[in-house]
Amino acid sequence: MAKFNVPSRGEVSASNQTIFDNLEKGLGFVPNLYAYYAKNDTALADYLALQNRKSTLSAKEREIVNLVVSEYNGCRYCQSAHTLIGKMNGLSEDQVLEVRGGTATFNEKLHALAVFTLSTISNRGRATEEAKNLFFEAGYTEANMIDVVIVIGDKVISNFIHNLASFEIDFPLAPALESVNA
């Protein structure tokens, strides 16, 4: 079985070392996912630019998308990171778990977003008419739809990287939905 290691600061390019320093200052640590991107000279900067782009979606709405997609793709790293970030953006533990399952019955608009996101990812961009109607009836726009797809793409990238490399999860481990629902 292939073994993938997260590089240390000294093992990455000078430009990535600068990004590591900035992450250390801003977050207090360099998450393993970000460090892993630094194995490629441009991937970390490119990924952070995508992740930090301006959006029509609020931080909480982006977390709804991140949680749904990470659950669908079975990425324990991103489930764990976005459970923590979702809570930082006002979601309770129970709400995070519900969202990971593709619903948000605690808020009509966020529910429409969760349903639309799950339908979009599970149907490879061909969300059901019902999911699209629910999304637009909740007040979302075509500009919002574009941003949802961009956030889905962002999360698919990181989900796939972790699912391929399986490096250590450096966030509190999110419970598996099966154990919660059992």
Plain-language structure description:
The longest helix has 24 residues, at 142-165. The protein is built from 10 helices and no strands. The chain is mostly helical. It has helices at residues 14-27, 32-37, 43-51, 59-72, 76-88, 93-100, 108-122, 129-137, 142-165, 177-181. The chain folds into 2 domains: 12-51, no CATH class; 59-181, AhpD-like, CATH 1.20.1290.10.
Salient structural properties:
single chain, 182 residues, mainly alpha, AhpD-like, 0% strand, globular
Secondary structure tally: strands: 0
Measured on Cα atoms, how large is the radius of gyration?
Answer: 17 Å
Specify the CATH class of the largest domain.
Answer: Mainly Alpha
How is the CATH topology of the largest domain named? AhpD-like
CATH superfamily of the largest domain: AhpD-like
Map the helices and strands.
Blueprint: H1 14-27, H2 32-37, H3 43-51, H4 59-72, H5 76-88, H6 93-100, H7 108-122, H8 129-137, H9 142-165, H10 177-181
Helix pairs in contact: 4-5, 4-7, 4-9, 5-6, 7-8
Brief rundown of the structure:
With 182 residues, this protein is an all-alpha fold. Helices cover 64% and strands 0% of the residues.
